[in-house]
Amino acid sequence: MRVARSPRAVWLPTHAATWLIAFNIACSGPPTNGARSPGDHGEAATGEVAEDDDVKPTYSPAELGRALIAERGLEAIAERVVADHERADHDLATSEPMRVAVADLAVRRRFIATLESCQASGRWCPPRLDERPFAFELDPPDPRPPLDTPLRFDLTTWRTLTAELHGRACACRTIACVDAIGVAIDQLEPEPTREVQGDELASDSLTRARQCLFRLRGTSPAVRVLEP
Predict the structure, then answer these.
(1) What is the dihedral of CA 213, 136, 116, 121, to 10 degrees?
(2) Radius of gyration of the chain (CA)
(3) Which residues are CB-contacts of 33 (< 8 A; sequence separation ≥ 6)?
(4) Cis peptide before 140 (omega within 30 of 0)
(5) For residue range 6-60, what is the model confidence (pLDDT) as tens digits?
(6) Which end of the chain, N or C, is less surrounded by CB atoms within 10 Å?
(7) Which of 156, 158, 161 is nearest to 146 (CA)?
(8) pTM score, two decimals?
């Protein structure tokens, strides 16, 4: 079975402000009956570390709809993989492939729930729809996470880097992606100077990135304090 890849996000030109207003109005209504909340799959998604969710989509409603169709097809494939493990009597406690398959299915379902929420009410919209490759060794962690933004820690670059981490975090569909982005955030966050670390825009991007990771895990956030 061939399933279309999730479409890449399209960055709109400045003159698309009219569309953005129309899209926000269209998304402001009540959720549809079929919309799921991110907490419908696994533990309750209580990882809300920022109350206001004002990320404005850079993709059209049609692109969002196509992404949902593609993701539901991939969800069905993931369900069959888990079912194959179950038919083979694999034990979740001892079979690493089954553990990963079950965790990946849960993450993808939560990602689909965020897209459904975005489509129905304009909430939990990820900044981007594409899941970009992120090969990153976690044990021990690579010293330089493979990001598109140069790993420099001046204010301008740090803002761009944290925005990229936010976009990547919210677009994760697998537990490996969730784990890798979480490690990258923890690894890079202490690097800038205190003055740059305190930047409101960059801090907000990291907060929202962690919010997405908590939501995709279905877990509650832990308060993290930087060492003085």
Answers:
(1) 50
(2) 18
(3) none
(4) yes
(5) 333 333 333 333 333 333 333 333 344 445 555 444 433 333 334 445 678 889 9
(6) C
(7) 161
(8) 0.73
